[in-house]
């Protein structure tokens, strides 16, 4: 189903491009844009490591920063090649858990680190709501963004309630993990300074993606401001993260085409921009492939089950 959705949406997105535009995407100018975008996205991965270390400190999990960056890069690589957007986090969690001998702390810190980033994304969507409503005559995108925020908040609330409920039941692996997560979540909310820093890092990560999208689109022929990108791209990032396609391909291109069209920008430029960002994600994941290859064979072999489980998801 995911391959079907991905191919169908990619076909729709590619239909927005002319033969000349496809040739332009394959030209040397786009190669330069691709390499520059890859550097930006690699920087975002570095910021992801910083955010993880901040949250891990709150969770009382001690991790060496160099290994943390290595594990984050490996997770980024597997997120690009697995059909699930969380497969790389599973691999990262197993690597970190075995590396620090604290599997529960590793997965709890990763889950909370992702939640911090999710909250920052929801905040950006909420901030853009009044501006989006004032800008668009068609309210469909605005309603979609509002629905995404409400669903996201409900999902967060359900996650914390479920963790609290399961964690209070009888002992077991799942109960222990839920109890650990619930306790770490309380520590996260009781540490405003470190949590605030983690949120700032999250805003820097999302801001880098917004600036990159605006810069690429303008280089490819659009006339779009950073404020315009803020109105639609956070919602598109949220939609693309849904587990309905392979690595967000197709969903990202189609959604950005719709968003750009609503802002009066060419859909073809949106598709070209999204394709370059998608390819840049793959290029920026190559150091993660190298980091995985540099792991001792015994360590790589010990994670075969984790890779199989993540791929299955």
Tally of individual helices: 15
Oligomer kind: single chain
The main β sheet shows up as:
none
Report the uncertain regions. Answer: none
Q: Which overall shape is indicated by the principal axes computed on the Cα atoms? A: globular
Structure, described:
The chain is an all-alpha fold. The chain has one domain. The model has no long low-confidence stretch (mean pLDDT 81).
At a glance:
It is built from 15 helices and no strands. It is mainly α.
Features of the shown structure:
globular, mainly alpha, 15 helices
Layout of secondary structure:
Blueprint: H1 2-14, H2 19-25, H3 28-58, H4 65-81, H5 87-100, H6 103-135, H7 140-167, H8 173-189, H9 192-219, H10 226-240, H11 251-262, H12 267-284, H13 286-294, H14 297-301, H15 304-312
Helix pairs in contact: 1-11, 3-4, 3-6, 3-9, 3-12, 4-5, 4-13, 5-6, 5-15, 6-7, 6-8, 6-9, 6-10, 7-8, 7-10, 9-10, 9-12, 10-11, 11-12
